[in-house]
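S1.2 Input.
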Amino acid sequence: MNTPPPAIVANQHIYDDYFREEFTQTLDENILQLLDRVWFRSKLVGFENFPQRNNPNRPLIFASNHSGMAFPWDAIVALSHLWRYLPKHASLSDLPRPLSAPLLSQTALMNPYLVKEFWKKAGCVDATTLNFETMMYYQDHNLMLYPEGVPGIGKGFNRKYQFQRLATSMVRLALQHGTDIVPFYTINAEYLNPYAYSWDFINRFTKKIGIPFLPLTLLLLLVIVQPWAFYLALPAKLTFVMGTRIRPSDLTDKTTDQLTREEYLALSEQIRQKMQAEMDVAVKNYGQHPYRWAELWQRMKENRRFFPFFLPFAWPALFTEFERLYVKEGRRDFHMQLDRPGAWLRMLWRNPITLAYFIPVLGWIPLAIKGYKGNKLGQKP
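S1.3 Output.
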């Protein structure tokens, strides 16, 4: 194994600065399993023979498409499903840890329901060049990228299922470290917030306040009068389809030092086209009926004792109560009794900030104060 450069060694604290496996496990048991079971109903296709490292000393790079114009529930659901799936079918060490857009962690507002450091506690690492290079020496898990970056999240519904330009850093580091790229395709997530569009001149303004893009849609009116809708996701059945493994070293005879930027761009485009072709097939096979309303209704009936927690308007109280128990009270081995009568009302009573999510317009004032308190805008990640 090559010795990491000094800058990489100095940065290896990012491996465990925030990541807490017990946070992920407790979150999954108390919240995400229910949301997935009823609302998102996610499905893994082709994950039976889970990919293993071709280079034992380097993590595999998993890569997927982003859903356009939606809060990144697709990534939350994919990782929580794999968290439950892998211990039974492979190993939890195969779980990919995501490199995420730094804007997601710069303000509490971009963390689900203002749960402080949500993304990082669940395993995310800010997607900077240094962090990416550092994570290539990480041994405990694989890596996951959304190589379209923020432009992939911010693409309008008119460009659904269209891969945007992929980051060349993915190709460069895969070549440099002799590891493979494993694509998988997120299907139906485009319908978490459908018919939403954006304009660059508006996004330039929203980025200054920590919001990477503003989806312009009829649902935006709901966000104004009911702030909980800022994190809203419609009940699309999320399907994750494994793609064909890509070995970048098979695409060029040159070393990383010999390749020019133009050649890296060409390799990135070649990989993008391969992934686009596979995703088109996956959309044809699994993306024709994104909501499956009958199945949704059946799941609701089967889980009616947990009402209303599988519905989005109840999620603010659910996540805020989780943070109160886990962070403020320091509990670890707990189970939120969501099937007890009046559980939602008790959560509202114990967490009065959640009432602001239901107050038209003015409710945004306390949420914005909490969301931007101690924000990191303008600071180096």
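S1.4 Remarks. The mean pLDDT is 91.
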